From TrEMBL:
GO terms for cellular component: cytosol; nucleus. Removes the phosphate from trehalose 6-phosphate to produce free trehalose. Trehalose accumulation in plant may improve abiotic stress tolerance. The keyword Iron does not apply. It holds the Pfam family Trehalose_PPase. Belongs to the trehalose phosphatase family. This is Trehalose 6-phosphate phosphatase. It comes from Arabis alpina. The keyword Transmembrane does not apply. SUPFAM superfamilies: HAD-like. NCBIfam families: HAD-SF-IIB (TIGR01484), T6PP (TIGR00685). Pathway: Glycan biosynthesis; trehalose biosynthesis. It comes from the Eukaryota.
Length: 347
């Protein structure tokens, strides 16, 4: 396991361009270039603002018609039987993103609560299958929203992984499972976070969130006319930190260490920890709504194992195989999985 981490956490200056988790969802070819320029200190502020605009799904509506998109990425509810068929004889392992997947997207990140019904469903799910939450938020924060001790948690985009507090039937000594491949960056992240708070305080609506191994700069509540100011402020801080990179989520700029670690690596690490490293009898199911989830979808495609489900009401480029519209549909899908499993085990 130590080797797994070492091999995967070497700095990746050279690889940034190829491996950025924004690759797949880049709406225009030069958006990747834009982020590289920002990351490398080039500072194309206008282009960063374009890129921020593209964070909003409404800007992607015209990319493909909904109907043809749904033909390519059918509803996981409609394809439920096919999914079960593909998983036959294999151990299903569940990976769930939090924001936009288990909880609806809201204006205030501190109020992104999941419903009681969803919590009950996820609890039942974890009784049926090994289940992990994989989030961009810091692990403690996402745990405080989910509050289930039977889950694996991968916070800070997978850079902070911990086994279930209450132990697990799927892993011996799961309580001691801890993987934090970016600890050396903690002081830098704290410093950058303080600078970003200071720099952005004059931009109404901007919110800087310290996610321990990464930082989020939210612009959901920033007037679009002020986005270029915000981009300037972020850029002015980032230019002094070549070991950090900038990515995007939903109306959020994510600042992360340039290590070769993301939600895809977290998925692989957890599969290995669960004893499924070189195993054909495993069927990982990853459900997520965000660009950072694409790294995990991509890994599943590369491994030809399990499948990814994108949560989106709008057509988006994705490495997922199926889609669900919103957290309500996610809950329906999870419930059906639980019912199916309970029926099979005669519970
Ligand atoms: O990987 P995730 O669990 O999806 O976390 C990604 C980011 O989610 C949160 O921000 C997003 O949700 C907020 C609440 O609905 C919303 O206000 C914001 O616009 C979204 O980007 C979280 O606050 C970030 O720290 C996470 O990185």
């Amino acid at each position: 396991m130590v080797r797994f981490i070492e091999e995967n956490t070497k700095t990746m200056e050279k690889e940034i361009g190829n491996k950025s988790n924004n690759d797949v969802t880049t709406t225009t070819k030069n958006k990747k270039q834009v982020l590289q320029d920002i990351n490398n200190g080039g500072g194309l502020i206008n282009s960063l603002v374009d890129s921020m605009r593209a964070c909003s799904p409404t800007h992607l509506k015209s990319l493909m018609k909904q109907t043809s998109w749904l033909t390519e990425y059918p509803s996981a509810l409609d394809m439920f039987e096919e999914i079960l068929h593909a998983s036959q004889g294999k151990q299903i392992v569940m990976f769930l993103d939090y924001d936009g997947t288990l909880s609806p997207i809201v204006d205030d990140p501190d109020r992104a609560f999941m419903s009681r019904k969803m919590r009950r469903t996820v609890k039942k799910l974890a009784n049926c299958f090994p289940t992990a939450i994989v989030s961009g938020r810091c692990r403690e924060k996402v745990y405080n929203f989910v509050k289930l001790t039977e889950l694996y948690y991968a916070g800070s985009h997978g850079m902070d992984i911990k086994g279930p507090e209450q132990g697990s039937i799927y892993m011996e000594d799961s309580k001691s499972l801890l993987c934090q491949p970016a600890t050396e960056f903690l002081p830098m992240i704290d410093e950058v976070c303080q600078k970003l708070i200071k720099q952005t305080k004059l931009t109404p609506g901007a919110k800087v969130e310290n996610n321990k191994f990464c930082v989020s700069v939210h612009f959901r509540r920033v007037d679009e006319n002020n986005w270029s100011d915000l981009a300037n402020q972020v850029r002015s801080v980032m230019k002094d930190y070549p070991k950090l990179r900038l990515c995007e989520g939903r109306k959020v700029l994510e600042i992360r260490p340039i290590i070769k670690w993301d939600k895809g690596k977290a998925l692989e690490f957890l599969l290995e920890s669960l004893g499924y490293a070189n195993c054909a009898d495993v069927f990982p199911l990853y459900i997520g709504d965000d660009r950072t989830d694409e790294d995990a979808f991509k890994i599943l495609r590369e491994r030809r194992q399990g499948l990814g489900i994108l949560v989106s009401k709008f057509p988006k480029e994705t490495n997922a195989s199926y889609s669900l519209q919103d957290p309500d549909e996610v809950m329906d899908f999870l419930r059906r999985l639980v019912e199916w499993k309970q029926l099979r085990s005669g519970a």
